[in-house]
Amino acid sequence: MKFIETLKNVWNIEELRNRILVTLGLLLVYRFGAQVVLPGIDASKLAEFSGNFDAGGIGGLLNAFTGGAFANASVFALGIMPYISASIVVQLMQIAVPYLQKLQKEGESGRKKINQITRWLTIGICLIQAPSYLFGLEALGVPSAAFILGKTPMFFVSSTIILVTGCVFAMWLGEKITDKGIGNGISILIMVGIIATLPLSFAQEFVSRVYESNGGMIMILIEMVIWFVIILLSVLLVMAVRKIPVQYARRTATGEYEKNIFGARQFIPLKLNASGVMPIIFAQAIMFVPSFLGGVSFMKDSSVGQWMQVNYSDIFGFWYNVTFALLIIVFTYFYTAITVPTNKMADDLKRSGGFVPGIKPGTDTAEFLDRIMSQITLPGSIFLAMIAIFPAIVVKFLGIQQGWALFFGGTSLLIMVGVAIDTMQQINSYLLNRHYDGLMKSGKNRKAVA
To answer: Which of 74, 248, 317, 362 has the highest local Cβ count within 10 Å?
Structure first.
């Protein structure tokens, strides 16, 4: 009943209702585009190509983030990932490039310029990825007969233009969802792409368990319980914070600050996982390197090269996941260090008349915050690494199909959880500010303010 009441409250707010409808409409356009095959490719002959991604290998991972568009050879085959890559590059460059640091301090105008730089960099990345994708289609399993007019220069040029345009259009859809819809548009597009492959993956697991006598309904129930538990743990990882108490000095009648117990007390929330899913993304990018190096000419015939190809091409293998987990822990520390500016936090706190009880303002506060971040980052990074490799654990010990196992952890699950929480918080803010305490466990209805 509470859920139904919440839906009614959401529908009663006209602005929120319109934003949700706009979001759903734009997502429908994105999903439709993911089914439109590139001109010059016979869609009926892509079945074998699509089947290569059901096992959940590296190709399956790429296919999951594009919602099946990668395997469909669609106009959205590149998905929104080039934009994500460009955003990461620009974010890292802001640490070292003075011009970007200056733009970052210019407020809204600087943010618009940084966004424009990100868009142009996205196009540059697309111009590299699109031809690579097209040239690799046949190697990935697309039969030569699928190319209706052959692999001519005209096909590659036109398809490259279409793929780049598709990525730019997907980027535009994401920005429109952010401006006119609800939630972060880019994140929602990724989440919808991931969710799009979930029903088929579960159906394949269900058929394997029930109709092929591979455990029956009991195993399905056990898997669902484990899945809900890992979702709960992921929510805890995303939401967990360490609250650092902060006291603000009270301004007296003479305009001076009086530091006493009557000052306003607040908190600095330091997140257990301040880096989000970025360490997993960085680690996955690095994990392509060992199998690539094992296949180069001077190593592919050696025992070391063959070992690297075998062990690092299987994303559910032991050595792949051990290396993957260690890289995640390292990158969690690295990304947290560059994205949580403890020195700036301490300076801003000092300028606003705030202080951490028992800690001197300024340098001592920065060192204290940095020490606390280091302490909470270790368990956070280990927890993140365990969730990231959990799909390999369930494949090994429970025999779960690899496509379905991808939803038991890793980037897919953390993105779904993080985006869902962010979207729910935005909806909740509308309910709190405009109409009802709809998503609150307690609280009375409040009339809308005209």
So the answer is: 74
